[in-house]
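Journal club side-thread
Mid-discussion, someone asked how the predicted structure for our own chain would compare to the paper's figures. Pasting it here so we can look after the session.
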Amino acid sequence: MMNFDKEALLGKWKEVSALAQKTFQEKITAADLEKVKGNVDMMVTLVEKKLGISREDAQKKVEELMTKINQHDLKGKAEATAGKVIETASVLMDVVKDKMKKK
């Protein structure tokens, strides 16, 4: 049984499809992935057949793809949050400097 929400595959299909093509290079094509269209069971079957591996190993490969996508998403969110924190700190520093000048 896979450890990710099956809806996540469909919701992030564009990213998963691009990463799958890159990861599996010529073994899985864009046309193959177009037929799957985010269906997790079909994706596992595709990986299983195209790579010639067991269903369990294919499930692990699909999970790895999703983990990479989720890590990328988290990194982007963390970078955006850090940018907002720095911006807020800068504004606060300006306010403190203004108050110090007025004293």
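Post-session note: The chain has one domain: 6-102.
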